[in-house]
What we know:
three-stranded antiparallel sheet; 9 helices
Amino acid sequence: MTHDEERVIRPPIDQISSGRVFQPTNAFLYKKMLKVGTVLVLIWFALRVLFIGFTNPTFLEIILALSQPLEILVMIGWETTNIVYVSVALAFFIVGSIYSFIYVRRIEYSVLGWEGDAMPEIYTRKGIINITKKHVPFRTIVNVRTRKGIFDRLFGIGTVLIETAGGSTGVQPTGLISVIIQRLRSEAEEKIEGIKFHEELRDFILREMRFFGRSAPISTTARHLRNRRRVLTRNTLDAFIEIRDVLRESER
């Protein structure tokens, strides 16, 4: 086993030295499919409730006053709308599932620890057409946390969110809508999604960060010592001697 393999996490978490990269579990794919399916079903229920409300003249008048294009739905009727929506939703779900399957299968993660000579970092690879590869050095990480939504808890998976120094800098939002959008968006610089050992991975990263924090002052102190040694060079010594001679001459 090479030194590189000893520095990489691969699931399960207790077998850190078993390989170079790891990927999201199948549960991450099932989660994406369930989320899309749930949204499509909720839209269907919303349409059904809307058409039920169309039978009430008062409700119909209010709805058409708010949105005139909804008159097209009234003219088409529920049966036609239902057939069209179900057909489009099924096609969207099938295409989306195929895309999600390919996308998830091409995700790669790796976490390099402190053993060996390489700099500790987190590596991610995502994308199908436009492939994005990121290397996040431990020295730039300022915060690590985990997130488990409703669907995550259902499938027993989670996400590790990694924030880096300067990752949240930029123009601050001024309007209410901009603030809400920024709150809804993840502030993490990188995400490791769809893994069952997310809490163990978070603890491992935090432990490596503490090790990095302890070793950093040593190198900093050594650099300062080297700089102090450079002050006492031959040129500075000659300058001090020249100043001394001038002071002696002025005292005579």
